[in-house]
Amino acid sequence: MTTPLLQISGLTKSFAAPDDVRHLIVDVPEFSLDARAQVALAGESGSGKTTFLNLIAGILKPDAGTISLDGEVMSELSEPRRDRLRGVKIGYIFQTFNLLQGYTCLENVTLGMSFGAGVDRAFAESLLKRVGLSDRLHHRPRQLSTGQQQRAAVARALANKPKLVLADEPTGNLDHKNARDSLALIREACRENGAALLLVSHDQEVLGQFEQVGDFHKMNLAITKEVGV
After folding, report:
1. For the chain, which has fewer Cβ within 10 Å, the N-terminal or C-terminal residue?
2. Higher pLDDT residue, 178 or 154?
3. Which of 93, 92, 26, 40 has the alpha carbon at shortest distance from 202?
4. What is the CATH number of the domain that holds 128?
5. CB atoms < 10 A from the CB of 205, how many?
6. Are 105 and 144 in contact (CB under 8 A)?
């Protein structure tokens, strides 16, 4: 039996509220994702989907549980080692894109490479060409349309040839046509680069494009729990 690329067990995360009560946001007993698989998770806004992705990416540390990515237990690593693992093996497409406004498209992609194996300008340019931005290499985010910014974010996410791409409501800021085109681009680019894709969304049209769709509400037991201090 092939070992999944991503394995999660007993994952929990809570946050303290102003009322001194800790609110359980994520409680996922089990989850796994195979290499090169493309899976969408359905869930409404505020259901903990972004927190779940941030835990997988190592941006947040869980209260309990394990996250194993490509054989490494991320949840047991120090913050610098989590950052290194994320830089090498994870690409993240944020809903708000998170492009650095003072840098060009090309610089945004090559800067991302500096956290991985190293800068490969030719590959960065090829990625931007692949996403239709060959004539926007030296444009800054404010000089791009929303759809073009999203394409730059896709190129940046693939810059280090990650094993896993996480996508958090990646079409949420796009109109209907750009949303469909962008989703197709993300899926095709992941296939071309051999990356698994885990996407979260509340949009039924987006979810309908996937063969494998999970229900985050059913996975995440935190939706029906609350933990007091």
Report:
1. N
2. 154
3. 40
4. 3.40.50.300
5. 12
6. yes
The tokens describing 79, both together, are 């913050």
Pairing of strands 90-93, 164-168: parallel
Q: How many CB atoms lie within 10 A of CB 141?
A: 20
Is 37 inside any structural domain? yes
What CA–CA distance (Å, rounded) separates 110 from 139?
14
pLDDT, position 1: 65
Q: How many residues does the chain have?
A: 229
Convert the pLDDT of each residue in 93-129 to its tens digit: 988 888 999 999 999 999 888 877 788 999 999 999 9
pTM: 0.91
Which residue range(s) make up the domain with 115? 6-224
CA gap 176, 168 in Å, rounded: 17
Residue 61 lies inside a defined structural domain of this protein: yes
Q: What does residue 116 show for φ and ψ, rounded to 5 degrees?
A: -115, -130
φ, ψ at 154 (rounded to 5°): -65, -45
